[in-house]
Write a structure and sequence with these properties.
The protein is 74% helix and 0% strand. The chain is mainly α and 134 residues long. The model has no long low-confidence stretch (mean pLDDT 87).
Length: 134
Amino acid sequence: MDYALAADFIAGIHLAIVLYVIVGQLLVVVGGFLKWGWVRNLWFRLSHFLVIFIVVLEAGFGVMCPFTTWEYDLREMAGQEGQDGSFIGNLLHDILFVDVPQGTLNIVYVIFGLVVFGSLFIIPPRRRTAVESS
């Protein structure tokens, strides 16, 4: 098995999740003001909230993200350390991991989680009704 490639794949998934949370919230706010119906989709909004809720719980309990642990373990099995990975791996790593104290990141996670939670009330999700689906 190519552990370096697997680590790059995990980093890509991790980045996609981060983008889902950040871009998703931006789209909820913009879509709420522009009356885009899809941003009120119940399943989208609940899954979006669930992801940031898990991040906030990890920060609160001091647990490292499983994707980070998995990627690091795979890089170690590939004989890589930190920035010794592939170009894609390094790029994804640089995007995901900024040089900020963990305490500061935890505060950012909680604030962002509160923003997502608040948006559930300001721009509430809705179930599709029979009239809307026809």
